[in-house]
Amino acid sequence: MQIDESLIRSVVAQVLAEVGQAPAATSGFTGRRGIFDCAHEAVHAAREAFERLSERTIADRKQVIDIIRQIAMDQKVELGTMEMNETQIGRLSHKIEKLETLGKMTPGVEFLESKVYSGDHGLAIIEHAPFGVIGCITPVTHSLPTITGNAINMIAGGNTLVVNPHPGGKLVAAEGVRRYNEAIFRALGIDNLICVIAEPTLETADIIFHHRDVAMICVTGGPAVARAALNSGKKAVVAGPGNPPVVVDETADLDRAARCIIQGGSYDNNLLCIAEKEVFVVNSVFDDLMKAMERAGAVRLNSAEIDRLTRVAISEVEVNGKKKLVAAKDFIGKDAAVLAKAAGKTINSQVELIFGETDEHNPFVPVEQMMPFIPFVRCHDVNEAIEKAKFYEHGFRHTAIIHSNNVRNMTRMGRAMDTTLFVKNGPCMASLGLGGEGYISFSIATPTGEGVTTPLTFTRERRCSLIDDLCILGHPSKS
Ligand code: NAD
Known about the structure:
Residues 39-427 form the Aldehyde dehydrogenase domain. By secondary structure, the protein is α/β, with parallel strands linked by helices. The chain has helices spanning 5-18, 39-54, 58-74, 76-87, 92-105, 143-156, 170-188, 202-210, 223-230, 254-266, 283-295, 303-313, 336-343, 382-392, 407-417, and strands spanning 35-36, 115-119, 122-130, 133-138, 160-165, 194-197, 214-220, 235-239, 245-248, 278-282, 299-300, 314-319, 322-327, 354-357, 373-379, 399-403, 421-424, 444-445, 451-452, 459-467. It contains 15 helices and 20 strands.
């Protein structure tokens, strides 16, 4: 389905234009449906919405979340198509699936379990209170999906949010937020629980980072924004970059490993931060794994083709006076067929992943490429494979994967990597409950350590103590 960008722009403009005429029945910001040009106004509106949400029950929060879930699931095709048309990266079917998955599987108010300590000296209850307004930065790789997951988590915890989306995904961000707020307002009479900056810039991000009424921030993105958040002076939940390595040892089920590497490494054309980015394989099974990859539908490039692709798909930039290799923008999230063409090879457009043998010094190994080309590096033994995996994960402590049936090797790699997610014998997404156990979020907090974020990530613990009463067990002699 082709969605006209100008239509989205005009809807956003219309909402902004209507502001002047919006009835100021409940607040000066009611009627904005969360869409703001001015970051200060967005924070004020989110603060007002927070105060209104604080007067409501947990059942009301659940109703808000159910509305967001329903829209994400029911309108996934339209919104996913908008995201694809605007960002021009990834794969349409996965854009659609991501919205459905986040709508269905993001944890909600059920995560807010209180803890109770009861004993001879009475009762202490630990409950989870909101922070207030949360400032969010979201990536172009998953613009509306990240906002959807963040909104469900944060509102479940009783918070409201102001989002500075990536400029490359700002239209779908605004349109999704408008739809969520519209439906929430109709059902509960509260507007602006989710606010979004219609024209996001580094300046608007900076205002949000330092605004007095923003209680905490949650950023999802690469190294620059992770650093900016850590330097903001506010409590920050940082879902930072990764470069997930895969190790395949001599005990692995090679056909299963190949299928998993293709499934995870090609999902949304490798835009997932948890996606398989480079593979270290024990020499004795290297050639068999390469054949298994071809049997499973991936297409192998030869070394001349890999060289051609590397020259155009990885570029050199200067960051703070230092030269750095990065993925070239024109190739991030593009189809395998587009990469293959740049390598000088014509392949079927249905092919999900291309791959090939490189040494560890090929830039595709150290660079978080976010493209469906995966380099395979031959290693003498599993120790060398784990050592290289650790080195090229760069200490992000994000995600690592092993295919093995040797529990000692799994244990050794798990200990060595020390990553937030460690997957054994599955594709990366199994660690987020997609084919494995657990729950999902698209903000996986790595340097700040909260892991896969949940409503509890966005709450403060509060303790309520009653001394010497209401513990109804036993018969203390002097009561
Ligand atoms: P990006 O770093 O280019 O942008 C992310 C967001 O940060 C955007 O909104 C951008 O406008 C903003 N930004 C960048 N520099 C900033 C600064 N100095 N101050 C304030 N805001 C700034 O990343 P991207 O291409 O949009 O997304 C891909 C990156 O995000 C990858 O590195 C990927 O690993 C990471 N990511 C991590 C997770 C996770 O859960 N850990 C999830 C998704 C993506």
